[in-house]
Amino acid sequence: MKILGVSLFFFIFLAPFAFVTVQAFTGTYGINYGRIANNLPSPDEVVTLLKAAKIRNVRIYDADQSVLKAFSGTGLEIVVGLPNGNLRDVSADGDHAMSWVQDNVLAYLPDTCIRGIAIGNEVLGGSDQFSEFLLGAVKNVYNAVNKLKLSDVVQITTAHSQAVFANSFPPSSCVFRDNVVQYMKPLLEFFSQIGSPFCLNAYPFLAYMYDPEHIDINYALFLPTVGANDPKTKLHYDNLLDAQIDAAYAALEDAGFKKMEVIVTETGWASHGDENESAATVDNARTYNYNLRKRLAKMKGTPLRPKNVVKAYVFALFNENLKPGPTSERNFGLFKPDGSISYDIGFPGLKSSSADSLLLSLKDNRGCGWCGCYSIILTMATAFLLVFSR
């Protein structure tokens, strides 16, 4: 009877997880929850907002304790970030990496559904201040995750800007910049070994702002247009985002990583800008983000990789009033700091009259998924074994 009990325990409780491949992004639509602001709703209110909007995939740029606690038991799937400023220390010391993972990931599992760790953000292709530390940090964090038996639960990635590319149009001509290759190639080799995707921050808004004379704004906004053809592949593109994604696929193939998936970790459109940012308008932001939602809902690939369903995290959840740079940088939010919508693309805003009752309802009815059900499963499994071991 004990053998039968153990066998039944495995097939009922463990079999669903026995062949899990780690995947940080389980849908097609996610959002970046940036917090460079002094006027944002509390993390608990953010949970209410995300639940109401039915947005499940969330990225943050650190591992803030208040956010991770608020997300506990909600079923929301979160990618935490190791900030660029931590790369040097984590790269130099495996014990430091282990402590960081224990304090910022393990301590919150399984109740908070942490699905990934983003090691830095847009490290390569810029000032090279942190470039030499990126691979070491990635390896040390992965080793820590692996030692803690979390490598089938938590995916390791890093996001790149388009500054890592040269000759990105037409898409088939895209390659990695010469000064990036020395860092990118070994990083891609390691990601290929552990099954991580190539994460890209892709902004048709920025591309259009850089070259408005040669880019049709309708092409950038997913609106009807003549589009663009790639003379080498003979593929036709009816929107700029698809072309940007396929440019990344072309660069990966040129570097020897044809099978690696591309995931868009940031994309969006500013709703307000400076005088020289005329494309940053509410109408354009609404159009881009509404059409992006429709594009992702189709669950289809790109012209070059039609079988690879496009997944994207929108930037961003809120306008962030303390971000430096041009006005546009502070106006990418789908929502205003008070939780109301910046413009209507089909999401409800945070309504104070019902926020408290909705929040209580969410806390009482915890999300279920792997992380939400894990504690229940262990409890039931223990009881099951006790019965059959007698």
TrEMBL record:
It comes from the Eukaryota. Residues 1-24 form the signal peptide. The chain crosses the membrane at residues 367-388. Keywords: Glycosidase, Hydrolase, Membrane, Signal, Transmembrane, Transmembrane helix. SUPFAM superfamilies: (Trans)glycosidases. InterPro entries: GH, Glyco_hydro_17, Glyco_hydro_17_plant. It holds the Pfam family Glyco_hydro_17. It is an enzyme of class 3 (hydrolase). It catalyses: Hydrolysis of (1->3)-beta-D-glucosidic linkages in (1->3)-beta-D-glucans. GO terms for cellular component: plasma membrane. One of its GO terms (molecular function) is glucan endo-1,3-beta-D-glucosidase activity. One of its GO terms (biological process) is carbohydrate metabolic process. Its EC number is 3.2.1.39. Belongs to the glycosyl hydrolase 17 family. PANTHER family: GLUCAN ENDO-1,3-BETA-GLUCOSIDASE BG1-RELATED-RELATED. This is glucan endo-1,3-beta-D-glucosidase.
